[in-house]
TrEMBL record:
The keyword Ion transport does not apply. The lineage of its organism: Bacteria, Bacillati, Bacillota, Bacilli, Bacillales. This is BCCT family transporter. It holds the Pfam family BCCT. It is found in: Cell membrane. Belongs to the BCCT transporter (TC 2.A.15) family. The chain crosses the membrane at residues 7-28, 48-67, 87-106, 143-162, 183-206, 226-248, 260-280, 321-339, 351-376, 409-430, 451-470, 476-496. Coiled coil: none annotated.
Amino acid sequence: MKTKLIDWPTFIGALFLLLAVTIPLVLFPEAGKKFVGDANSFLTGNFGVLYMVMGLSVFAFLVYVAFSKNGQIKLGDEGEKPEFNTFSWAAMLFAAGIGSSILYWGTIEWAFYYQGPPFGLTPESKEAIRWASAYGMFHWGPIAWAIYTLPALPIAYFYYVRKKPVLKISEACRPVLGDRVDGLLGTVIDVLFMFGLLGGAGTTLALGTPMIAQGVTDLTGLPANLGLKAGIMLLCTIIFAISAYSGLKRGIKILSDINLWLALFILAFMFIFGPTRFISETTVNGIGIMADNFFKMATWLEPFGNLNQFNETDFPESWTIFYWAWWLVYAPFVGLFVARISRGRTIRQMVLGTMIYGTIGCILFFGIMGNFGLYLQLTGSFDVVGFMDANGTPATIIEIINQLPLAKLMVLLFTILAIIFLATTFDSSSYILASVVQKNVEGEPLRWNRLFWAFSLCLMPLVLMFLGGLDTLQTASIVGGFPLLFIMFLLAWSFIKASNRDIRASDDYESPTIHIKRWKKRPKKRKRSALEALEDVKQKE
Ligand code: NM2
């Protein structure tokens, strides 16, 4: 076993932090729950505004970068073609950044908005219905994808332009923090990132497992108890452990391909055999509502809520702020991944591609799956809300799928899709976790290291699931991800600082490393004077 390659302070630091949070939760579940819950209300309540400002600023920053000189920089050598064609690129991007949660929330998120609408609207009113079919798209829309894209900027820049492979978030802050990233500060940044990712992935697991269990129950009649859930978690771990073991290219690629085609099939089936016209109209309409109210939604906090003049709903804290925090803990990880697959593209292509294709992908899921459920509710053919109150969310999701023609086959495919989605997210997360704790990664991180993180990703939530503290871990991850707010700022600054310096330098001489499309100044053709023209003519004669 090669251990020299491991960056021990980061490895031990992350493990220590994880145990330091999990062990007290195991020993004192009630007190632990209360503590974490309080910390969460404190942060999202008092600093919710920071999350909203972060979301909007990151979005504005990326639009700026895309259309600035910096956006024209090519990630690679002059004349180099993109390594992956745009379709595979978008598909891989989506598979890495999106997991089984989209099947969960895509199908059911509207029902929560329908019952607890934003802006103090009356539950289940006409207005609530309109917003219910649009808000999910917003929470999985351009701002969310902008949060994902930002870390990719410095990482891709150092990787392909300065040709310094960076697999650590701390390393990407070097232009701003200087050599301090080699010391304690760097380790702290990486450990926080790892902790956030472990927690964010815990949230994914916590949502995905009961839904998959419910699918299995529906198909086999086995009770959806803890044993079944634990079995499912282990199955997913084994799938991703095998694919992790066989290496990035084969494992992740095969799984993402199956994933993509299966997802497209289910969506197409639902669209064609479901209420096609209703789905098309609500989706287009929802995009319109989102576009029209983009800034309203991106800034809506309830400043007057606790002044007793308005009814406080906690909608911003429970939804928008929670979502931004959740996307945030995944962001450095997705950034590393996006950077890796973007060789040969310009920064602008990478930025706009992530934001546009990512959003389109999520709109497809929310538009088709969500509005299918909404249709069932509004036509009265299946009382989703009533069923949910009586049987809980996971059972309702599976019951919605059961309303399709060929119901059992569709539930089977849906369940398989959820398992693969979960496995691919874990596959790529364990790959990144292992890379971050290595001093250098030539080709692939060490296998034992990958397996170690693959199992830590699963074991911790498993233990907590048995003891009933899984939602606490979820909340803890959001709390743990708080410092990432500031790290995002560092990442943006690093990118601008480094790329501006290189652009300035390339103004003076032909820089060998930086390739700027179109923008590079060409020597101006001087207009010839009439006299010179005359000289020319004379010479030719
Ligand atoms: N996000 C996209 O569970 C998953 O789908 C992974 C979740 C951050 C809400 C990502």
